[in-house]
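Summary: Need help interpreting a holo structure output

Steps to reproduce:
1. Submit the protein chain below together with the SMILES for flavin-adenine dinucleotide.
2. Request a joint structure prediction with the ligand placed.
3. Inspect the structure token block that comes back.

Expected: a single structure record containing both the chain and the bound molecule.
Actual: see attached output.

Input attached:
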Amino acid sequence: MTKKDAHNETLDVLVVGAGAVGGAIALGAARQGLRVGVLERNAAPQFDPETTPVTRVATLNSASMAFLAELGVREALEQRRAHAFSGMYVWDANGPGHIRFEADALGVPALGWTVELAALESVLWGELEAAGVALYPQTEWKTLDRRPDRVDVYGDHRQPIASARLLVAADGARSHVRDYVGIPFTGHDYDASGVVATITTEHPHQDTAWQRFVEDRIIALLPLADGRCSIVWSQPEWPAAEDTLALDDAAFCAALEQETDGCLGAITATSPRASFPLTARHAKTYHAGRVVLAGDAAHTIHPLAGQGLNLGLADARTLVDGLRGPARHDPGAETVLRAYTRARRPENAFMQRAMDGFKLLFGTQAAGLPELRGLGLRLVDQATPIKRRLALRAFGLD
Ligand SMILES: Cc1cc2nc3c(=O)[nH]c(=O)nc-3n(C[C@H](O)[C@H](O)[C@H](O)COP(=O)(O)OP(=O)(O)OC[C@H]3O[C@@H](n4cnc5c(N)ncnc54)[C@H](O)[C@@H]3O)c2cc1C
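--- attached output ---
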């Protein structure tokens, strides 16, 4: 569908935000033959495996990869440096606790995949183009008119952009659409930042994701296809994260080596660093009229278990599945959006509470707690059925 056609007729679905979640929803809807548009304020995402540096990285679980396979983009993603990992090791710096997961022991080919968001977004965008979706890069909407049968979207000076029977807000944690339509959210700041970088280590990463809890900090090393690791180092905003960002490369590598207890030997090189504020937010409802929220626009969680994007892709899958059958006639119908909210909100709330529980459990150093924690982790590590259930849930294998 050309933009001109989209301009003259009402789309079935207009997605605001071409991040991974918005891209997946748009492609899923287009694959069902619905008339779809995507509005993105940035330029079309680009990725070249030869030249694009590693920047934003996320770990995807099996459920997310299965969904991407259904959308027909998994193979292309794997060709863009997605990397399967087979082990995960989590340990506590302040106690004897540790737990190890192995793909072999669970009878699965991989525990997860490290993927670069730029790779995923560009693969989805390419498929959207090929599927004839009306794409609006570098376009920012200014006002919305919410009517009983559609939502009209306007740019500067009330220039009409598009109309759709369902408007999907996949515009990230600071969703302007969510605020515009007045959906309230609850939540809190962690007063912490996630410092991210790409590092080179002395020893191979062994296709394992490493995570160490150190008082109120958490360091995760995620294995990349080129042998390096992407790190997420959560630490209190002030002074720790600020100080960490200000270190020169040598001092940063030395601090990181200490924080990881040298699990992969010396840290020999690092990319430039960036940091992201860590917040927990949850929209009180996921829909208002014909507007629905998905991904970070609906919920954000602590990145300690690498679940944010997995939850967003689960939203995408549920929403897209809900548009089949009779819902095709009106994708923005109240019944469709209520069913989606009912399916996704409790699950996302559960994960948010679980992340906060983990964070509290590992961040508390009261007398005896590290030992108790260690005992608990060791028991789970040895109790094969419990560990298996935990792993199946965490890695999206159930
Ligand atoms: C430090 C850190 C580490 C993380 N690690 C992991 C991990 O290992 N695994 C995992 O699953 N998750 C992880 N996450 C979470 C994950 O990155 C996010 O949940 C996910 O990227 C959200 O995707 P999204 O598509 O919902 O939003 P976004 O990726 O934020 O995309 C939103 C899109 O909307 C566009 N947009 C915004 N406003 C407008 C507008 N007004 N008009 C048009 N377009 C607009 C933006 O340009 C963007 O393209 C991590 C998060 C952090 C902070």
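--- end attachment ---

Reviewer comment: The longest strand covers residues 185-201. The domain at 3-71+117-186+280-357 is CATH 3.50.50.60 (FAD/NAD(P)-binding domain).
Status: needs-info
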